[in-house]
Amino acid sequence: MSKPKGFEKPTGVKDYLPHAVTKLRRIERNVLACMHRWGYEQIMTPTIEYYDTVGVASATSDQKLFKLLNHRGTTIVLRSDVTAPIARVASSLLKETPFPLRLSYHANVFRAFEEEGGREAEFFQTGVELVGDASPEADAEVIALAIASLQAAGVPEFKIAVGHVGFLNGLFEETLPGRAGAQESLKACLLQRDHVGYRDILRSLSLEEPIRSELEGILRLRGGQEVCDQALRLSGNDAAHLAIRHLCDLWDVLGAYGVQEHVLIDLTMIGDFSYYTGMTFEGYAAHLGFPVVSGGRYDNLLAQFGRPAPATGFALKTTRILEVVEDEAEANGTTLILYAEPSRIAALAEAGKRREAGESVVTEAVRTAEERGAVEALLQTKANRAKNGEPLVYQGRRYDGLVAFGIGEGEEA
Amino acid sequence: MSKPKGFEKPTGVKDYLPHAVTKLRRIERNVLACMHRWGYEQIMTPTIEYYDTVGVASATSDQKLFKLLNHRGTTIVLRSDVTAPIARVASSLLKETPFPLRLSYHANVFRAFEEEGGREAEFFQTGVELVGDASPEADAEVIALAIASLQAAGVPEFKIAVGHVGFLNGLFEETLPGRAGAQESLKACLLQRDHVGYRDILRSLSLEEPIRSELEGILRLRGGQEVCDQALRLSGNDAAHLAIRHLCDLWDVLGAYGVQEHVLIDLTMIGDFSYYTGMTFEGYAAHLGFPVVSGGRYDNLLAQFGRPAPATGFALKTTRILEVVEDEAEANGTTLILYAEPSRIAALAEAGKRREAGESVVTEAVRTAEERGAVEALLQTKANRAKNGEPLVYQGRRYDGLVAFGIGEGEEA
Q: Sheet holding A360-365: strands in order across?
């Protein structure tokens, strides 16, 4: 392609201007504080990792990894999630720290080849990992914390859908034994939430009853406690039964947390990460077509780093949450202190005093006759402007307060 | 090389465990809040940029840039500073926003080929850019803000050395006209602060008096106001004189800010960034061999992005500051709530209540007889431990409070 122009940046990445940064930082701060109240301690891992370790272990498909070679010829990736790096840390720096580990993070992650179609190549995630606890209580804790985190972020309305990869795997193994291709096509439809396609494939498989209606029936397995009961009747497979029992226990613990109203059991749900081994969940906000949080249990990942352990966790899609969260009124505005050179000491001292008191202050020297005229005009109308709620504008920028030193009649301080 | 082991990460990058993250986050928060009080608004730019734009414009030498190819064959770099990206934003997204722009950032930046010798390939910088103001007041503002930022970060003792690239360029042009090689060697020595090497080169040039003593005399040009006076006498070159006059004015404004005690004029100082065009400065903390802040004026950078403007700014070396800042006592510890299953609802409700009040709480279900025994023993000694100031340890982890539900004699809440 032709050389990029000076003002261009790679497609798929963003600049965040002050207004957006204020909002993003507020979400980050509130969510991390929430995670801290649940006993999760924050860690940071590097932006770059080895392809052969974290790159391969991550759930991101190979062609979506950002790769580069270091000068020794080793392939490096830009991290595509923080779950695999945390598994590495749990097995190295933290290997003497007893389980359970409760860790939180806020980080940018990367996807190559997502430059087209408006998808983002770099975006923020805020999440937790609970490592070393296989119980339904641990899964319920991360779901309840995901709900608390979405509330802390300010997401007004959302629903969490919970499924279990063991149920679908068990059911498909029972009803379509050895037919890997058919199983994969059906799962692909469920992952895309394409129920029409799922029914089409079912028809094309010319299955006998009751297999066909069993497989079609799962599309209706969405709801509360009653879904667990229905699912137990639907499948006789042991793995599927174990999965359902785990979900029933999890549902009870969610009741003890008082958060069942935010949760829906959805047995058609497949987590989109290949490393999930048990419960998976996704959270949807009103009026948004994509999840704002996703998580699940991954009991085989840590073994790849040399310290086998069950684990469960989630990541908020913080960049997407930015779109559904209301703007907050700015806490306090900026005061402009203008001064003529002979009054510099008094002006800068006043600025220092106000900054120490927590006020945001900009200082500007007034040098030219033109600038001086503009300041004098502004000072004359200042009282009227304040009365009418009109903004103070100087050199094209809006301020919430104005103090002048050595300009105009009455010096103000 | 051989395949990296599972627990390995690329050399030159770091994992930050919770203790270090707490400290790093505190520095980040306090410094950004300080910059906000000076009217600087925070922006965020992407981790990746085009090599042909930001990569070339940055002050980092080509072989130290982390490069990768995107799928279109365009060369991408991991940002090596945030000054060049901000120049890009000032010329694109912010091109209608009037000068002066006051922008702040906190970001990780990258250096390739620094993996050896313990140097870091990824590290944090926290900085500001003041764009569109060529005055000594602007230079003094960023130096005074650098001082306030180091204080906000908690750096106990530091000194800022201020120089001017125009002085050395002017002096060398006057004393060594046309001898580019000799000029470069002398500058290289100054950049490395190698005064012995500088004198050796001077000797080897067999210069006549008073040229030789003039060039040797600059090594003594370190101090306050008096240095400006000496420098004015030392060189008759116009550019050198202009530079010195600018520094004298800057020194006056620093006096108005009341911060001269932290500053040293050092005319041998050369900023290590090729884009500096005027005043440059570096800040040194006690007991640290490398600068904790560096900055300067770069009046030609924005033109490369299509919106010519003078600019000045600095970056704190936040990762290094981490090493000189004291640990702070943790604000409040974590309470452990243990429960037997029948008491789950009461236990989780108590946890919820405490979290709402801002407390950090971990909950654990007690399942096995062994766990139950450990909890009962802990409860029996709890009062004594608290009296003796001994920590509460459960499953190898230390807590600052303990509440049990459904275990032990008297249920506590």
A: A360-365, A334-339, A401-405
Of A336, A334, A350, the closest CA to residue A379 belongs to A336
B352 and A258 in contact by Cβ < 8 A? yes
Among B76, B78, B145, B338, most A C-beta atoms within 10 A, so best to mutate, is: B76
* Residue B72: Cβ within 10 Å count: 10
Rounded Cα distance, B390 and B381, in Å: 10
pLDDT digits (tens, 9 = 90+) for B198-234: 999 999 988 888 888 889 988 888 898 888 888 888 7
Which pLDDT score is estimated for B6? 74
Instruction: Please tell me whether residue A398 adopts helix, strand or coil conformation.
Output: strand
More reliable by pLDDT, B104 or B395: B104
- For residue B362, give the nearest of A6, A39, A365 by CB distance: A39
Q: Which residues of B touch A48 (CB under 8 A)?
A: 10, 13, 66, 78, 110, 121-122
Kindly list the strands in the beta sheet with A41-42, ordered across the sheet, starting from the edge strand earlier in the chain: A41-42, A101-110, A122-131, A311-317, A293-297, A279-285, A158-164, A263-266, A222-223
Confidence of residue B34 (pLDDT cuts 50, 70, 90): very high
Kindly identify which residue of chain B lies nearest to residue A356, measuring between CA atoms: B37
Mean pLDDT of B38-56: 94
Which residues in chain A show pLDDT less than 70?
1-2, 113-118, 273, 329-332, 409-413
Q: What is the pTM of this model?
A: 0.93
Annotate A341-384 with DSSP letters as a single string: GGGHHHHHHHHHHHHHTT-EEEEEE--SHHHHHHHHHHHHHHHH
Cβ contact (<8 Å) for A10 and B50? Answer: yes
Q: Which of residues 259-298 of B touch A (CB under 8 A)?
A: none
On whether A183 is known to bind a ligand per the annotation, the reply is no
CB B151, CB B324: distance < 8 Å: no
Interface check for B6 against chain A (CB to CB < 8 A): the answer is yes
**Chain A residue numbers touching B97 (CB-CB < 8 A):** 396
Average pLDDT over residues B249-256: 95
Domains and CATH numbers, chain B: 18-324 (3.30.930.10), 334-412 (no CATH)
CA distance B179 to chain A (A): 34
ipTM: 0.93
pLDDT tens-digit map of B329-360: 666 689 999 999 999 999 999 999 999 999 99
